[in-house]
Amino acid sequence: MKNLNVFGYPLFIVFMAALPLGLDARWQEVAISFLVFSVVALSQDIVLGKCGIFNMGQALFFGMGAYCTAILNNEYGWSLLSTIPVAILIPALFGILLAGPIMHLRGDYLLVTTIGFNIVFVQAVQNNLGGVTGGPNGIFGLDSLSLFGHEFTDQVAVYYFAFAVMLLTLWIMRNLEHSKAGRALHYLRLDPLAAESIGINTRLYKIFAFGLGAGIAGLAGTVFVAQFTAVSPEGFGFMQSVLFFSIVIVGGSSVPGIFLGVFVMFVLPEVFSPLATWRYFIFGFAMIAAMILRPRGIWPAKFGNIPKFLIKESNHGG
Amino acid sequence: MAGNDLVLTGVTKRFGGLVAVDDLSFSVKEGQIYGIIGPNGAGKTTAFNCITGIYRSEEGSVKWRGEEIRGLTPYQIVDRGIVRTFQTIRLFSEMSVAENIMSGRHIKSSQSWWHGIFPTPGSRRDEKENWLRVQEQLEFFDLQDYATTPTGSLSYGMQRRVEMARAMAVEPTLLILDEPAAGLNDKETCELLQTIYKIRDKGVTVLLIEHDMDMVMEMTDYLSVINFGRKIAEGTPAEVQANPAVIEAYLGSEDDDE
Amino acid sequence: MDTFFQQLINGLTIGSIYALVALGYTMVYGVMRLINFAHGDMVAASAFVGLTIYTQVMGQSATLFSVIMIFLLAAVSMACVGVILERVAYRPLREAPRLSAVVSALGASLVIQNGIMLLWGPQMRIFPELVPQVYWEIGGVVVSLIQVIILILSLVLMVALYFFVEKTRMGAAIRASSIDQDAARLMGINVNTIIATIFIIGSSLGAIGGLFIGLYYRGITFNMGWQYGLFAFVAAILGGIGNIPGAMLGGMLLGLFNAFIAGYVSSTWSDAFTFILLIIILIVRPTGILGERVAEKV
Question: Which of A121, A246, A253, A291 to mutate to test the interface with C (most CBs of C within 10 A)?
Fold first, then answer.
């Protein structure tokens, strides 16, 4: 754990920062997707891994952010970057509103309800809700990334945008671990009654986690639009949500586990593209095998964000 | 000694047709160690659950320093300074002792929810401050050596101590202990007694359910005896011990126990 | 009025299919507290197996004998798949964290769904016309022979299941395991046998549901299982999860609800309405219409 913090993360970040230099256009595209999906998976981890909310509809918020950006750009001519506040706030608000009435439901009911939200969302954009979502074809021909009037046509710019968003997400997750709110999520996941009995408003913090996860996923949606300059409903379906859900659980709800999961689910299929039709068949077996062999995930999250002065005194600690 | 801190009047809790707590009234004064005893299934824990907001009693009132707290949620009740432990220890067993105690600092911490996203210098200071309070509790309960040990791997007696440390981290005015001596050996029970006295000396009122008669008689200032959800006697330990109804209902039925 | 009765018939037909599939979900959930995500895909697989039995084994003949054989063989093969699934993907995870079993179920679902795609191809296949296209028109309402068969056969199966669960020793053991698995084990019930039985019954009923889907809608696709499976699971929740009569009622109600939404409102929004109904029911009556009957896993 210590080695990971001291060497692992800096090395990973330096590697990712230098990555586009060594890649051709096709692999740069894959690398951007890796970053975007990582951000969504990390946002799902806040909801599912940390707070323990059985949410199987995270693609909904990813899609909602993407559609916010796309619609504002397409209908009102906003530049992509200027849509960011909306692409975060609208999904976050939606998350809070949706979470409010259902948070008290038992796990499996939450699972089905959130799947339901996801399906309703896809159906709504397919039916061209409000005449702005473009129906089944989606919205295409959007602007590329621009800043202060300068347009970036090179996708390396998109890569660094995605990279910045990923760094921001990692930073937020780190902050969470060292805050009252983040700890509250762990406590209420492990024992809701005990958490409530030492003064944690469990409902409030569940909704907080849901809203935060939705906001981050929405931001990832903006990056998605910047990459493809288009959106369409199938990118945000229930199947995507299943993948994000599985990545968090199979990864063990830890940051390295999640990166590994996203790599396996989204990057490896590009490496073995001749096997594309076998992709989900193999994943299915891999999911079963991973769970049987490592029920707590491949790289289980560890606790222990304790200040050093407490650790020094402890000589029994593990 | 000041006035009454916690006043229960006519509290009744039913589960279907079963009356678990029946018209229960008692009052706890500030600074007391107040005991509630009664045979198994007498409704003691249910009464505690009604006080701490886990259940809502159908009738009666639960007043804390003059304020009606019946119907509040558990976390709102903690906010008023009433904290409890559980008969079946409920720790976050995958987490370390220090993190468990830190959970008790939740309501004392000045951080808002959004500090979890964007920390400020103030929230960092608050974080440090609360860890220092955790350290104090570790020392008070003599747990320094186990700060990083997951609570799930500790002995039963140690877990009880961690749970009390967690509750004390909230800096409560009323500490409610649900059978704190259950499952402890004699040495641990002895230590527990000393700890409870030390907690009282800090100005904390203690309300406890206990099964261990000797312990209750020795340590409490005042106590109530419950049977079948009703209070059958109250008084100082000496008064209660002399009460024939208690001897018949409680002590008599427990012949085979010890 | 014609629309009303027409949608009533359509709704009861699709509702009885949902009910058959929902029984598999509700029985498994009742005892294991697990959403068997693969169940819907087994329903889909059954339709494809039926198609292959028809073309390869029965020489494309649609005599009464071959139809019965198709139903029997499809049900038996899905029962085998169900038992293997439970043995391989679920039994090792009974003591594991809940979410691990959920992910294993999702994995199994992907395996079966994509197995169908690899074996039969990704394009839509047409299910054989096993039942002659006979229609009756009664006062403007069209009723087909297929609808009548689906309705009657589903009812017979459900009544049979009801009596099996309520009146036999095995049924009593199943009910006991749904209430408290550990107590059932202490009373000498072999929970492994119970779970295997549940998978056999649930998968066979699901298989018949899958063949009905093929007969009724004709077009079958490898990924149709999620759609029907999810709806059937919603039906099980509506009726009260773990509750066998509840699943039947929930299936029928959901079928009728879908049909009336399609008939009177819009078919393009039917999924949305279904889930809005589910959410309202869960908020108003969180244990479903007839109440849930599940083992609490502590």
Answer: A291
Residue C198 belongs to domain spanning: 2-124+134-284
**How many other C-beta atoms are found inside a 10 Å radius of the C-beta of residue C57?**
12
Residue pair A36/A220 in contact by the 8 Å Cβ criterion: yes
Residue B162 within any structural domain of the chain:
no
User: What's the CATH number where B189 sits?
Assistant: 3.40.50.300
Distance of alpha carbon A187 from alpha carbon A50, whole angstroms: 9
Q: Do A280 and C29 touch (CB under 8 A)?
A: no
Residues B42 and B149 in one domain: no
As beta bridge partners, residue B82 has B174
Q: What is the CATH number of the domain that holds C55?
A: 1.10.3470.10
In chain A, which residue's Cα lies nearest the Cα of B88?
Answer: A194
Q: Does B17 map to a domain?
A: yes
Smallest CA-to-CA distance from C31 within C204, C227, C242 is with: C242
Q: Residue B117 and residue A196: Cβ atoms within 8 Å?
A: no
| A312 confidence band (pLDDT: 50, 70, 90) | low
What pTM does this model have? 0.92
Distance CA B219, CA B196 (A): 9
Q: Which of C42, C87, C234, C282 to mutate to test the interface with A (most CBs of A within 10 A)?
A: C282
Same domain for B177 and B60: yes
Q: Report pLDDT digits (tens) over B100-159.
A: 999 999 999 999 999 999 999 999 999 999 999 999 999 999 999 999 999 999 998 899
> Checking DSSP bridges between strand B230-235 and strand C125-126, what pairing results, if any?
unpaired
Mean model confidence pLDDT for chain C: 91
- Count of structural domains within chain B: 2
Tell me if B235 is assigned to some domain.
yes
Question: Is residue A318 included in any domain, yes or no?
Answer: no
